[in-house]
Amino acid sequence: MLPVLRSIFCLLFCSLLLGAADDAAIAKDLSARLRRSKLAADGVSFTVKDGVVNWQGQVAIPQRKGAATRMAKAAGAKAVRNQIRVGAIAHTKADPKTFPAPKQSPAPKKFTVKYRPRAH
Length: 120
Known about the structure:
Blueprint: H1 2-35, H2 39-42, E1 45-49, E2 52-59, H3 63-74, E3 79-86, H4 89-92
Parallel strand pairs: 2-3
Antiparallel strand pairs: 1-2
């Protein structure tokens, strides 16, 4: 009975140690990726626990929220909890040259179709 308990204890303890090592590896890889990305300028942060990455912060550009999730998955995360908020400025920051206001279309002209019988 004692060898069985020792084996179970060893498996549980080793899995905890390996899980911590995995978290450290994910965090190290993700930190390196974050330093090379534009997300670092937005000041977002993350935590890693049991292979799950939890993002916090605010970004100005909506696409960066998705980039954070993809970055965490690429770093080896099992799951991602993305709690990054997209700032209100992102919704009003559109460049008028890139996204011009829609033009009003002129009122349609009224026309009539006259029926002309064919000559045989």
